[in-house]
Design goal:
The complex is a heterodimer of chains A (about 325) and B (about 525). Chain A contains 14 helices and no strands. By secondary structure, chain A is mainly alpha-helical. In chain A, helix 5 runs antiparallel to helix 6 and helix 5 packs parallel to helix 13. The two termini of chain A are about 15 Å apart. Chain B is globular. Chain B is of the alpha+beta class. In chain B, the strands form 5 sheets. In chain B, strands 8-9-10-1-11-16-12-15 form an 8-stranded mixed β-sheet, with helices on both faces. A 4-stranded antiparallel β-sheet of chain B has the order 4-5-7-6, covered by helices on one side. In chain B, strands 2-3 form a two-stranded antiparallel ribbon. The chains are: A mainly alpha (about 325), B alpha+beta (about 525).
């Protein structure tokens, strides 16, 4: 197992370097000069030149990348020229919101998707199964900005059960905090459950045709026990992958959802940085999110090994 | 005991008398003290230190008008009234302005407000070592002197007839900060602002809520009603409006891009749409040094081919108000004849035919849905007249540098709402000015601009500005499409919102019924 982890960690290195390279070049190749952005409309060419020299913008791009990477490796991601905050401060303020949103959305999606998948697999081909697979397909094609607005109109404007926008920190008032998270996480969950449901359903149908399930049935085990104990774990390998990938997708989807529901998370920080050309924050956040995504997939890889011993030993 | 009864009944008489006086003095809307207001703004506020943020946006301005005071304020008729300054006077040439300050005012941290503190604010912005983007907007001020505790003297480079009106809202330059606070807090000052205003910053969660509480020691506290103001950034127009409908917020910022919400609110008796028809306009500059715009016929043809009503329908559901001059309905400059060219497609076609060569050019367009729509509508309008416009989509941030370096043929621009047209007109049209984007020079225009700037008499200035409008319209070096209109939507209970000069939503003196 230790060897497996070490090997995976080694693979991680080139991926992380690629992420940092991409992040840096995206921020550097954006149109518009950072010196102009900072100095504003009235910038004189001399001021611009002086500031470019001060910020090292007159250096060749590879040199700027190396020195930026050097700073990052020492934990210095830079400081926003607009708010004076460091990248790490800004991310630390926003991260809890995004993580809570992601977890609640993922839980919601699993809570909807997994039971439906099991029921559909158990009765595959039935009217219920056909209806659910159809609706899952329909739900997949509803964009989050549409479902978000529909949910707001139904639950906030018409029924007035839940707030349309806003946020309270969990530490301040846990119940109010959860109330604010219901609609945003439901919006994301509605986009995520169909994938979970369809993958788990088909994997389970395959598993249920295995010989050992037939044996379990012959032994007279209860159907529920067969489904949850014997069939679920071996069928959930793809589910784990999907869940891992979804975390990345949720970070992307969260940009829209955080904006609509006015949640102060990483997505909003990112949008704000783009709109105000706060390149230091932009490249810092993208790098951290990218690295987080890569690490998440690393964890998923490890989970495979836990679920399926064959992978651990390198035979799969 | 007896004495007690007598004094209390005496007190009651006084109370009653006082009450009836108050009743008779009360306006139709009784101001009610107390309560809270929650305001939904468009953007996250980046902070308040002018050295850091450079320019305050609309969201920051709503907060800064509660946190800070300025020398003057504009009343409902647009005249400057005392705020931190009690009175003012000027030299004959309008280049020296002297303000007498209000005594006894303190910043929220206890630092006394005086001429030294005011001068320290200005010097900090002006200091070249600080490289403040905000310095551009005070380039006309050569220096500020503080001859005594309560006197501030502005020495201007160019005359300014309406100088007090130009220091009337809490923008990055006019808001007065506590020098002790910015020195003590350094980098952290940006998010911990300290002013003299009617509200004090209580707490601020990044990207979420900013809570302001009434300043108990405010010099004008009787005219401040809410105990607390909560400001929330709600970036999405639909959910911002939904939050207003569901009662989570009392007032929201809005603009013409969400015309459907404004029109919905206008029909809803539970909501009030606050509108301010400001001065200025959305404008476009033609680079007259590049063909085909070196020929006046082409320029005139493009302006005549416009159909502002149709454009307004297509872009904002008809909300946008057409502009025929750079001043607009909100300005005190009213012209009998502003020299606007007629919207006449046939004449436009004839002019282009007369020009004889194919008319092809590129226009800068901001790469936003709104920018693209405007670009496409203009493209279609001009196509009908026989001119081919190619849209060049660029990022918002690249337009100013491109414009200043004259790397464009046709660029969008904006004349913002200000109390006096001088600053922007002079910058936009005086020969040699960095913002004279048309690259156009005309001695007559220069003479008019100089005269308007140096004349105290309003009637004469109006004449000058109308002559300027006629000249620019005739030469068609710039054109104007729509006037600036500013919007806020609130529940019908919110009263006392002042005019939104320069688009600023100031809730610091509003109240709820």
């Amino acid at each position: 197992m230790a060897f497996f982890v070490a090997r995976r960690l080694l693979y991680l290195l080139p991926v992380l370097i690629a992420v940092s390279l991409l992040t840096f070049s995206i921020a550097s190749l954006l149109p518009g000069d950072l010196a102009y952005t900072i100095l504003g409309d009235q910038a004189t060419p001399e001021n611009v030149a002086a500031l470019r020299a001060e910020m090292g913008l007159d250096q060749p791009i590879w040199w700027r990348y190396i020195s930026w990477l050097g700073n990052v490796l020492q934990g210095d991601f830079g400081r926003s020229f607009r708010t004076g905050q460091t990248v790490l401060q800004a991310v630390a303020e926003r991260l809890p919101v995004s993580i809570e949103l992601m977890l609640l959305a993922q839980l919601g999606a699993l809570a909807i998707g997994v039971p439906l998948a099991i029921v559909c697999a158990a009765r595959s081909g039935s009217a219920f199964d056909r209806f659910m697979t159809g609706s899952a397909f329909g739900m997949l094609s509803v964009p989050t900005f549409l479902s978000a607005i529909l949910l707001i109109y139904l639950f906030a404007v018409e029924l007035r059960w839940l707030p349309a926008t806003g946020y309270v920190p969990f530490g301040e008032d846990p119940l109010a905090n959860l109330r604010f998270f219901v609609l945003p996480s439901l919006t994301l969950a509605l986009a995520e459950w169909p994938g979970i449901m369809r993958v788990l359903r088909s994997d389970m149908i395959a598993t249920l045709q295995e010989d050992y399930i037939a044996l379990a049935k012959a032994k007279g085990l209860k159907p529920a026990r067969i489904l949850f104990v014997h069939a679920l774990k071996p069928s959930s390998l793809t589910l784990v992958t999907i869940t891992g990938i979804n975390i990345g997708r949720l970070i992307g989807g969260a940009v829209i959802v955080e904006t609509i529901f006015a949640l102060p998370g990483l997505g909003r920080l990112l949008i704000g940085a783009i709109l105000t050309r706060d390149l230091i924050i932009l490249q810092g956040v993208v790098l951290l999110v990218g690295a987080g995504f890569v690490l998440m997939n690393f964890v998923v890889d490890l989970l495979y090994a836990v679920l399926d011993p064959r992978i651990r030993h390198g035979h799969a | 005991m007896k004495a007690g009864i007598r004094s209390s009944s005496l007190a009651r008489i006084f109370l009653v008398a006082g009450f009836s006086v108050a009743l008779s003095a009360m306006p139709a809307n009784a101001q009610k003290a107390g309560g809270n207001i929650t305001v939904g703004l468009e953007l996250d506020i980046p902070g308040f230190d002018p050295l850091k943020v450079g320019v305050y946006d609309t969201a920051a301005l709503t907060a800064s008008s509660a946190l800070f005071d300025t020398l003057t304020t504009l009343d409902a008729s647009g005249k400057p009234q005392p705020k931190l300054a009690l009175s003012w006077s000027h030299s004959e040439d309008f280049k020296t302005w002297t303000f007498k300050l209000r005594p006894g005012v303190k910043f929220h941290d206890g630092t006394p407000f005086n001429a030294e503190a005011f001068k320290a604010n200005f010097d900090r912005q002006k200091d070249p070592a600080n490289k403040c983007r905000c310095a551009f907007y005070i380039s006309n001020v050569n220096n500020i002197q503080a001859p005594d505790e309560l006197t501030v003297v502005f020495n201007l480079n160019d005359p300014s007839v309406n100088w007090p009106s130009l220091n009337s809202y809490a923008n990055q330059n006019a808001a007065v900060h506590s020098p002790t606070a910015w020195k003590a807090k350094g980098d952290e000052y940006n998010r911990n602002p300290v002013g003299t205003g009617p509200y004090i910053l209580k707490s601020w969660t990044a990207g979420d809520r900013m809570i302001l509480e009434k300043n108990p020691d405010y010099w004008d506290k009787d005219k401040v009603y809410f105990d607390r103001i909560t400001l929330k950034p709600l970036p999405d127009a639909q959910s911002r409006f939904a939050s207003l409908q569901s009662g989570e917020v009392d007032l929201v910022w809005d603009d013409e891009t969400s015309a459907d919400n404004i029109q919905k609110a206008q029909k809803d008796p539970k909501l009030t749409v606050h509108t301010y028809a400001g001065s200025g306009a959305a404008v476009y500059a033609l680079n007259t040094k590049t063909p085909p715009f070196d020929d006046v016929r082409v320029r005139q043809a493009l302006v005549m081919a416009l159909d502002r009503k149709k454009m307004s329908q297509a872009i904002t559901n008809g909300l946008s108000r057409p502009a025929s001059n750079p001043y607009g309905d909100g300005s005190w400059v009213k012209c009998k004849d502003d020299g606007a060219l007629p919207e006449d497609l046939e004449k436009a076609k004839a002019l282009i035919k007369d020009y004889g060569k194919p008319v092809e050019f590129k226009m800068l367009v901001t790469a936003t849905p709104r920018g693209r729509t405007v670009g496409q509508v203009l493209q279609q309008l001009w196509k009908r007249a026989g001119a081919n416009m190619e849209i060049e989509q660029v990022d918002q941030a690249t337009i100013p540098p491109r414009a200043f370096m004259r790397q464009f043929q046709l660029t969008p621009w904006r004349i913002v709402d200000t109390a006096d047209p001088d600053i922007q007109m002079y910058a936009n049209f005086k020969t040699g000015s960095p913002v004279a984007l048309a690259n156009y020079s005309n001695p007559e225009l220069d003479k008019l601009l100089e005269h308007a700037r140096n004349t105290p008499d309003t009637a004469q200035r109006i004449d000058d500005y109308c002559a300027i409008s006629r000249l620019i319209n005739k030469e068609a070096i710039w054109f104007w499409t729509f006037q600036n209109t500013y919007y806020a939507i609130s529940t019908a209970k919110v009263k006392g919102l002042p005019k939104m000069y320069s688009g600023v939503i100031d809730v610091s003196r509003a109240w709820k019924e």
